Amino acid sequence: METNRQEDQEVKVETRPIIIVLTLLVVPALMLFPLGHASSTTTCTGTTSNAFVPTGPPTNVVTNTVGGYAITKENFGLCFTGAFNGITQGKVTIVVSLSTGNGIFFGQNTFTGTVTTSSGTSSGTILVPFAATFSSGNFQGPYTLYGGTGGLKDLGGFGTIQGSLTTFSGTYTASFFTS
User: Fold this and answer.
1) Fewest C-beta atoms under 10 Å: which of 18, 57, 103, 165?
2) Are 162 and 138 in contact (CB under 8 A)?
3) What is the CATH architecture of 32-178?
4) Rounded to an integer, what distance in angstroms lies between the CA atom of residue 92 and that of residue 168?
5) Distance of CA 84 to the CA centre of its chain
6) Do residues 140 and 104 make contact, with C-beta atoms less than 8 angstroms apart?
7) Can you give the chain as a three-state secondary structure string?
8) C-alpha to C-alpha distance for 32 and 152, rounded to whole angstroms
9) Contact by Cβ (8 Å): 92, 73
10) Is the full-model pTM beyond 0.85?
11) In the chain, domain spans
12) Which tens digit of pLDDT belongs to each residue from 28-57?
């Protein structure tokens, strides 16, 4: 019994420097992630432009560091106005270079709300996979639309997202087609 206690103390003493080093690496990396994730809940009103803002902080956030990169997986929500008017719920993976602060993110969300096209306005849900690169505090990248339900069941499309990492709000372009 005494031997096990001594071994436990030795393990604690030997792993303490590793934990401190990991903490010193991960905390600065987390500072590179969007500060907008800490924003309060937002409603989908106030603008008619093609814009989006967070609906609140992310959930289920898990971060690991691997070979000079911080990799974070999280769930998120966004509020869209303009051609899309509604909310999204999704999952994203964020990969940040610890040496440059630049990186990528990718994932998929489900949009629920109305979409206005040249043919009119329809409501339902639609899947939206996306990817983006970021540097110097800004991101941009493509998204696609598929798998709609309700009034969006025949809708497809694509566009771009762009915005600020500090607020995780931004704008988008949209091109639609029907199948």
Assistant:
1) 18
2) yes
3) Beta Barrel (2.40)
4) 13
5) 18
6) no
7) CHHHHHHHHHHHHHHHHHHHHHHHHHHHHHCCCCHHHHCCCCCCCCCCCCEEEECCCCEEEEEEEECCEEEEEEEEEEEEECCEEEEEEEEEEEEEECCCCCEEEEEEEEEEEEEEECCEEEEEEEEEEEEEEEECCEEEEEEEEEEEEECCCCEEEEEEEEEECCCCCEEECCEEEEC
8) 36
9) yes
10) no
11) 32-178
12) 444 344 433 433 334 465 556 899 999 999
* Residue among 113, 105, 112, 175 nearest 144 (CA): 175
In this structure, the number of other CB atoms found within 10 A of the CB of residue 58 comes to 21
Q: What does the block give as tokens for 36? A: 């907008």
Distance CA 52, CA 70 (A): 25
